[in-house]
Structures are given as structure tokens and as C-alpha cells.
Amino acid sequence: QVQLVESGGGLVQAGGSLRLSCTVSGSMFRIDAMGWHRQAPGKQRELVARISSTGITFYQEPVKGRFTISRDIAKNTVYLQMNSLAPEDTAVYYCNVDIQIATLKYNVWGQGTQVTVSS
User: What is the DSSP string of 102-114?
Assistant: First the structure.
């Protein structure tokens, strides 16, 4: 069974920084793309950033230049470094990972971690 464990959320003042981590645990799997989504109160969940198995990154426009996604393949971990945080970044952040077990592919979600940015 594959599990995603997230950490790093919290309360920060506007202009501050946080670093989110998401570690994939389990056995007999291969990780493909990894990413972060977020869901603000009353809004739909949206993609924030994504990184491919080869390290190609994608960012949504509102976070470009402020957020950086990276991965440590040896640790099965993806990170989201968030700088210059603003109140509109307040949301629950979810890790999302594409994995392959044998010939089957799965898309797995983390439990979410709250990020709150005060003005």
C-alpha cells in the first residue's frame, strides 16, 4: 500500500516563507510526476505546481517566481518552497503523485496540510 505523508504547513505572516514536504511510502512502486494542489475555502481545488519524473517543472501563473517545486528521488519526496507568501495563498495544500505498480498506474493524494497567511 502506498501512502503520502505531508508536512510543513502552518501560520505565517504575509511576505514570509514555508516549505512543504510530501514523502511517498510503501513498496514495489515507481514514482512518475509529483505535484502540489491547493484548495481555498469556497473554491475548487487547483494545481499549483508539478514536476515530472525528469525534473521538468510547471507552475501556475499566480505562484511563478515565488514558489519552487523540487524532488529528492532517493527519498521519494517532493518539496514546495513558498516565498513571498500572500493572504491569497491561504489554502489546504495537497500533494499529488502519479505512481506505477507493476503495469498499473495510480494517482494518489495526500491528506492535505493547512497553510494560513495573515496580512
Answer: TTEEEEEE---EE
